Amino acid sequence: GAVVSQHPSWVICKSGTSVKIECRSLDFQATTMFWYRQFPKQSLMLMATSNEGSKATYEQGVEKDKFLINHASLTLSTLTVTSAHPEDSSFYICSARRTQGGELFFGEGSRLTVL
Amino acid sequence: QQPVQSPQAVILREGEDAVINCSSSKALYSVHWYRQKHGEAPVFLMILLKGGEQKGHEKISASFNEKKQQSSLYLTASQLSYSGTYFCGTDDSGGSNYKLTFGKGTLLTVNP
């Protein structure tokens, strides 16, 4: 299957700092990437759709100033959690859609812990 | 709209079969199936696009009904490695508005 790489896998930060998570599609170009958040034993919640070269589309209830998304190239999207607080602690997962075939592949996920 | 998955959980003995269902109140453009193990990201299993479609292999397969509102995942002769949470993701808008909405998941436990 296609490979989507996410970095870092784990991050621990102090309250008030910002954290950047990278998502790369390694063997295909992805005009659209998606960012999900998952709480323990719960489903994946779509946060935003990241479009290459344009602004991200955020789901209702997701603060765009809090979760900054940049999709600078066809293979890279970044999520920056700004001024992180303990309630932002979660498992963040990116995904990329292969245009041909329509499959959606997930990165390995990033577990954020805010102290 | 979040699809409805059933059952919420199932426990099997190795070698037994299971069926997981995913349904929507609207016709869907596609259904994706994933398996997620604890602490890991979801792994893609398969995608269904056409009404009446069936795909996969003899061990893990899936179907998409003619109305494109219901999909089932079939796990045959289960192995220990099948344990995990299974999610269906559905796209009910298609085209430029594509996005997947996931069901709540089905926790499958396969015991020796």
- The number of E-state strands of chain B comes to 11
Using only CA atoms, what is the Rg of chain B?
13 Å
Derived structural class of chain A: mainly beta
The shape of chain A is: globular
Beta-strand portion of chain A reads over 45%
Q: What general outline of chain B do the C-alpha atoms trace?
A: globular
* H/E element order of chain A: EEEEEEEEEEE
**Parts with pLDDT < 50 across at least 5 consecutive residues of chain B:** none
Rg of chain A, rounded, reads: 13 Å
Name the pair of protein chains with the most residues at their interface, and give those residue counts: A-B, 21 and 21 residues
Explain what you see:
Chain A is mainly beta and 115 residues long. Helices cover 0% and strands 53% of the residues of chain A. Chain A has no helices and eleven strands. Chain A has strands spanning 4-7, 10-13, 19-25, 32-38, 44-51, 57-58, 67-73, 76-81, 90-97, 104-106, 110-114. In chain A, strands 2, 4, 5, 6, 9, 10 and 11 form a seven-stranded mixed sheet that branches. In chain A, strands 1-3-8-7 form a four-stranded antiparallel sheet, with no helix packed on it. In chain A, a hairpin with a 5-residue loop joins strand 5 (44-51) and strand 6 (57-58). Chain A is globular. The relative contact order of chain A is 0.33. Chain B is mainly β and 112 residues long. Chain B is built from no helices and eleven strands. In chain B, strands 2, 4, 5, 9, 10 and 11 form a six-stranded mixed sheet that branches. A five-stranded antiparallel sheet of chain B has the order 1-3-8-7-6, with no helix packed on it. In chain B, a hairpin with a 5-residue loop joins strand 7 and strand 8 (70-75). The radius of gyration of chain B is 13 Å and the shape is globular. Chains A and B meet through strand 5, strand 9 and strand 10 of A and strand 4, strand 5 and strand 10 of B.
